[in-house]
Amino acid sequence: MRLLEYSESGKLNIHSFDDDAIPPYAILSHTWGADGAEVTLADLVQGNNQAGPRYKKIRFCGHQARRDSLQYFWIDTCCIDTTDKAEHSWAIRSMFRWYRSAAKCYVYLSDVSTKKRKAGSMLTESSWEPAFRSSRWFTRGWTLQELLAPTIVEFFSQEGEKLGDKISLMLSIYKITSIPPEVLNGAPLSQFSINERLRWAEGRITKHDEDRAYSLQGILDVELAPMYGEGKAGAFDRLKREIYRLERCIQDMHNTDPRDDKRRIEETKGGLLADSYRWVLDNTTFQQWQQDLHGQLLWVKGDPGKGKTMLLCGIIDELHSALSKTALVAYFFCQATDSRINSATAVLRGLLYMLIIQQPSLAPHVRNKYDRAGKTLFEDANAWVALTEIFLDVLQDPSLSTTYLIIDALDECVTDRMKLLEFVAKQSSASDRVKWVVSSRNWPEIEAQLERAGHKVRLSLELNAESVAAAVEVFIQQKVDQLAQEKQYKAETRHAVLQHLRSNANDTFLWIALVCQDLKTTPKWNVLKKLASFPPGLNSLYKRMINQISESDSAEICRQVLASTAVLYRPVTISELVALVKQLEDLADDLDSVREIIGLCRSFLTLQEDTVYFVHQSAKDFLFAKAVNEVFPDGTEAVHRAMFSKSLAILSGTLHRDMYSLEAPGFHINNVKRPNPDPLSVSRYPCIYWIDHLHDSKPKSCANSVSDPQVVGVVA
């Protein structure tokens, strides 16, 4: 990138900088004069008369930059060699990025004057606003991106007098352009649809017809190499194809939307209570990480149920509130019980997805590989290698905004956890613009890997017991207040519940949530007796819950539901669960009863939008570590075997030619409408995971004793 500079002696110099070494600079936005009226790069190189009127805009920009303590400035007419086709093409594709990266953008309005004029016999001050509203600058195609891309845009008259900026003049600019105030105030353009952004350009003109399309590429988050001569229609056709390819790339990259995961987790846990996490904002370790330019990695660690996930949810919300609109916050919530989000590849895929929907200009790093490989880039055996290369390119991109990357529950990354830990430890020191937050249980193997990170700080919940205890107290108060209001407790009952929770919670949010969930279904006349049955400690509480289920009239069906859900590779809907669990098949038309059964297992399972989840990873861990005999009396292999057999039965019963009655081959997927009911709704899980259940049923060891001909046939 070339930049201009006026020396102390007043000489105009031109400098070239590599992309990773560009200093702060101002940038000029203006309308071009007639051919030959603008100073070109060749004029500067030849050292033509720099005092002439053609240099007026250059002098203005240089002097204004110096007043703003900026040494360098950029002007399109003389910083690009338009005679070099390759450079000209690169400049057009880089223009939006150059304007966005500028410290300030000066809009020079050559048709707006602030001079005093005579009106009749009186000398009056004329308003510049009518001229501002009708300025040619608002009618040109290229100036749209020059208005939208920079953070600071200041408007100046032909005399060089400042008229205001795009914030102070927001209402006038909105009336002129119909561009929403939130856009002018810095809201990411990606928040607005393609059609909305195209409307902002309606009525604008360019010297070359093709520039109508080329000038929109940064605004629409794509890159388009200019091909002058293709005409306006050809340029817009290519632009639309690029938009489609970008949208397709983002769709294929999407495996989960971490924003939805965050909302689901918060809802599952009863909502995010600000007073239960705000203590961290005043924590010395947290402030050290936040303020230290070289403290890149914050590791939040603690035992199960101590509130790590909700603490990170709170940190995410605080970062969104405190940071500038250009800063990026990308996060991912690992969950061991969901195969979609429990691998190292899924973590990088989710973080990249969030980064690119916030800053689409980063998409070319993905497109370089995606355009050749397609969706398999994110899914095949080489996905980890490809994604790490893409991620490194993104982290090193000079245009990357200040970025916060947050990964919750590293201990729940089941597949390739060590690879992820090595990657985080190494890359957390790669860029001063990127800060990392990770959380996990107190596992030595995680500590050993993160110890290799160059710049890190630890925030141990156990070492901040006083702060955690205060947060737990707030959580207890809120939960008891809710219970007392909903169940209409008397004062002495409310006090008894409050005291029991305080005495037995051991600063564990999850224990409190589980006890309060049980009390919700307890008649108020039985609360005091029920309280005494809740032991302190998560495992003790889980043990009590298992015993309670085992002694109930619904013990066997609850056991089947717990065992089946525990071996599933992702959360399933109620309909999928009914299809997979033999004991539930008679309830296919009575899903309310299935919901009641899941409610009986509420200390372990929860329902969100009719999808079954474990309340916490520790609940699933307990079933495998402490309740194997009760939940898996014939071993986990037998449950996998039942799941495999049921999967084959479902597939045999549902899969057949032309399931959606399309009749003719070659139907485009976008034109396919799912029938209601969807014959594939219960087949999706078995289609993918039947082979995993077969593998984990240990078929080689059981082939001789299995009577199911389906299993024997597959094993053989």
From TrEMBL:
PROSITE patterns documented for this protein: NACHT
NACHT domain segment(s): 296-517
InterPro entries, A to Z: HET, NACHT_NTPase, NPHP3-like_N, P-loop_NTPase
Pfam families named among the record's database cross-references: HET (PF06985), NPHP3_N (PF24883)
Lineage: superkingdom: Eukaryota
Key words of the record: Repeat
Protein name: HET-domain-containing protein
Species this chain originates from: Clathrospora elynae
Organism ancestry: Eukaryota, Fungi, Dikarya, Ascomycota, Pezizomycotina
